[in-house]
Amino acid sequence: MNTTEIFLIAMIIIFALPYAVWRLGRTDYWAPLVVVQIITGIALGPGVLGAAFPDYYKFVFNPQVVTALNGVAWWAVMLFVWIAGIELDLRQAWQRRSETGLTAGLALGAPLALGCAAALLLPGSSWRGPLGEHWQFLLGIGMACAVTALPILLVASVAGKLAGVGLAGKLLG
Fold this sequence. Notes:
The protein has helices at residues 3-24, 33-43, 49-52, 54-60, 63-87, 90-95, 97-121, 134-147, 150-159, 167-172. The longest helix is centred in the middle third of the chain and has 25 residues, at 63-87. It is mostly helical. The protein has two domains: 1-61, no CATH class; 75-173, no CATH class. The protein is globular and about 55 Å long. It has ten helices and no strands. The model has no long low-confidence stretch (mean pLDDT 82).
């Protein structure tokens, strides 16, 4: 199989597996799709899938495929932030500026702090590279947790009526 075919297999796994778990497992009441996607993403990573099935993981998530997936991820984040910016009602956000600031601060600050705290609990130094400093590792884990909170900001803005009923409102119901 060439890289394009393996990339398509990886994309199908990444998109279809969380949705299938969410729908077939009927988790929508206690876990929204975004939560299932994050948990499935962790499970598909090297720590779980790579440890359980190393040959399969190396085949599907080889360096060329991961590079292509990173490119798609960068575009997706840019589009996500662009859509969130388009949908934000600045007048409403400014009228509720204390609530908006608190929500945004907690949506990014709490995962950052909890991620840093969780990184303190990880055993040994095998999690960071040979040249990595301890503070860099802690902040990196915290930032990774804070970035996964980006979808929650859009969901909160739609739920809090800070966003319009345009594209984001239609996508999120």
